[in-house]
Amino acid sequence: MEHTVYIGFGSNMGDLKKNCQWAMDSLSRSGVCMVEKISRLYDTEPVDYEAQDRFMNGAARIRTSLAPRDLLALLKSLEREAGRSSAGPRFGPRVLDMDILFFGDLVMESGDLEIPHPRLHKRRFVLAPLCDIAPELQHPVLKKTVSSLLDKLDDGGKDVMVLEDVLAITA
């Protein structure tokens, strides 16, 4: 069974655009995911651990036959392959970060996996790119669209700037 999944991705170490493009290419090459749509890229302020460089963030819509936990395992393996270390602060600098935001209309909470992502509605760096590709997507718990969540977000004005950069979708 094919699932429509939205993922968020970002980087703040090394060649940010190259890291993000590598992530999308790697998903496409995995043989179990098809990248259908990618947002514009955003230059964003760090959140939760602010003593670090700015991030490049984006979002993508993918199709996959993987179960949620198997997709999470794939994303984490790609993060490690890109050079992400588990050492350091939880929200600290990273070569690559990839998160499942929505998995169809699934709602689940199980150990290290919560869908929808538990903090997506509080993060401009997630909502802005997600609005590029799915503004009318409805949060299955909050019953609000992504664009509505972004419009009503009160995050103290976290700085999120659209970059002209876009990533290619590869086969």
TrEMBL record:
One of its GO terms (molecular function) is kinase activity. This is 2-amino-4-hydroxy-6-hydroxymethyldihydropteridine pyrophosphokinase. It comes from the Bacteria. GO terms for biological process: folic acid biosynthetic process; tetrahydrofolate biosynthetic process. Belongs to the HPPK family. Signal peptide: none annotated. InterPro entries: Hppk, Hppk_sf. Its EC number is 2.7.6.3. Residues 6-135 form the 7,8-dihydro-6-hydroxymethylpterin-pyrophosphokinase domain. Keywords: ATP-binding, Folate biosynthesis, Kinase, Nucleotide-binding, Transferase. It is an enzyme of class 2 (transferase). The lineage of its organism: Bacteria, Pseudomonadati, Thermodesulfobacteriota, Desulfobacteria, Desulfobacterales. Pathway: Cofactor biosynthesis; tetrahydrofolate biosynthesis; 2-amino-4-hydroxy-6-hydroxymethyl-7,8-dihydropteridine diphosphate from 7,8-dihydroneopterin triphosphate: step 4/4. CDD domains: HPPK (cd00483). Catalyzes the transfer of pyrophosphate from adenosine triphosphate (ATP) to 6-hydroxymethyl-7,8-dihydropterin, an enzymatic step in folate biosynthesis pathway.
